[in-house]
Amino acid sequence: MATSDRPDTPIAFVYRGTFVHSTQQTALQTLEDALLGVDTQGKVAFIREGKELEKVSQTFGFKPSDVTQLAQHEFFMPGLVDTHIHASQYSYAGTALDMPLLQWLKTYTFPVESRFKDLEFARKVYTQIVRRTLRNGTTTACYFATIHTEASLLLGQIANDFGQRALVGKVCMDRNNSVEHYKETLQESQDETCRFIKELLNKKYPLVKPVVTPRFAPSCTGALLKQLGEIAKNNNLHIQSHISENVEEVKLVKELFPDSESYTDVYHKYNLLTDKTVMAHGCYLSDEELALFRETGASLSHCPNSNFSLCSGVLNVRNVLKHNVKLGLGTDVAGGYSASVLDAVRRTLDASKVLTIQDPAHDVTLSFEEVFKLATLGGSQALSLNDQTGNFEVGKDFDALRINVAAEDGPIDLIQPEKPKILLEKFLNLGDDRNIAEVFVAGKKVVPFTEPKEETTGLEGGNRHPTR
Ligand code: GUN
Ligand code: ZN
């Protein structure tokens, strides 16, 4: 092909080896000896067979010798999507799991979140959570911050600086909070939400966007929910909240909103269920409520670690999928104690097996391939970001993890060479960040971290690549 027929955007890099991903039709597609090229805008330019190297290199204008070859025990998979995580709760992750939801919020959560008025505290926690999630392969995160506008903007800045794709929500809550200094009036919540959205959008971060965030119905008056529904609609924004997580909470919502037919109906009434809405949990939704999710295009974030840890419930994912409701996985730090989506994958499999144990006649068990899809493409669909990320379709951003199943000093012993499907299954069940050699977001390598160069004499040389 003549040079003039080349695609406009030059190729930045090409990898050759095994790629695994999900498509609309298949939970797991494995491509062995494939060639994947990423252009200088960070998008997947082509994905072809290795034997076509000569032809593809001419079409796209790169040198075959510049191609990076993966080892036999390596593969690329799409980046993990965390559809629900409280960045502001990271400081107490792994503790405080001894109470049910409503008590847990009052005793642990609200007092800690009130500390984010202090920007230095916020900077410390938010830097650590962005680093921790990135090195665990979370290329997209949908974050709850706190009610504080400045600290929430700082979370957006930190995600942008580290190169993570993120939705960031300033939390809104104008009732039922007993903690001093951690509440807002209706007017404050509305004004600060508008300021937060305006200022975050003004930064023009390419991968970080605001999300309208009513904490959950019990924390918000109908008037606030109404305002937030209008703000989201007028600015075409994402929406996130919690729904039907725990029995006591569902009962409370019935008492607080006696005119609504269901918990789902409360949000629907205030225009908070759209195709850009993600609601966490949904353990106790009725089939009618799931039908309303389906009709509006709203999605669910399944957070099994949190559901087990706070003894909230067990979501029947199979039933949600049967209703054609979009669903992704969430860590729900710190109700969930792990910030890793790999943990969410394992707990999702556990939850579906618990349901199978309880009712062996029902076919509810999820396969690891299905859960892999939920953690990647499913998450991107749940966040309505699947036109940009979620798999290796040509034209999408290259959000990817380079996995080394046999990493030195890693947690997996490979006894013999294995096929890609087994390598993926082993990584999902046994792997950790030691197996994640590189993380890419929109074509940019974001892990290993590149630390800013220190003020030096110039003799030390090189960037530091901190270990885990
Ligand atoms: N419902 C309202 N707020 C929260 C929260 O911070 N965590 C969880 N798990 N559920 C909630
Ligand atoms: Zn949550």
Portion of residues in beta strands equals: 15-25%
- Which runs of at least 5 residues are low in confidence (pLDDT < 50)? 455-468
Global Rg: 22 Å
Bound molecules: guanine, zinc ion
Q: What distance lies between the first and last C-alpha atoms, to the nearest angstrom?
A: 46 Å
Query: What value does the average pLDDT take?
Result: 95
Chart the SSEs and their pairings.
Layout: E1 11-21, E2 29-39, E3 44-49, H1 53-60, E4 68-69, E5 74-78, E6 80-86, H2 101-113, H3 119-135, E7 138-144, H4 149-162, E8 165-169, E9 171-172, H5 186-202, E10 208-214, H6 222-235, E11 238-243, H7 247-256, H8 263-269, E12 277-281, H9 287-296, E13 299-302, H10 304-309, H11 317-322, E14 327-329, H12 341-358, H13 368-382, E15 400-404, H14 420-430, E16 436-441, E17 444-447
Parallel strand pairs: 1-4, 6-7, 7-8, 8-10, 9-10, 10-11, 11-12, 12-13, 13-14
Antiparallel strand pairs: 1-2, 2-3, 5-15, 15-16, 16-17
3D structure, described in words:
This protein has 468 residues and is an alpha/beta fold. It has helices at 53-60, 101-113, 119-135, 149-162, 186-202, 222-235, 247-256, 263-269, 287-296, 304-309, 317-322, 341-358, 368-382, 420-430; strands at 11-21, 29-39, 44-49, 68-69, 74-78, 80-86, 138-144, 165-169, 171-172, 208-214, 238-243, 277-281, 299-302, 327-329, 400-404, 436-441, 444-447. Strands 6, 7, 8, 9, 10, 11, 12, 13 and 14 form a 9-stranded parallel sheet that branches. Helix 3 (119-135) runs parallel beside helix 4. It is globular and about 65 Å long. The termini are far apart. The site of zinc ion has 6 residues, from strand 6. Guanine binds next to helix 2.
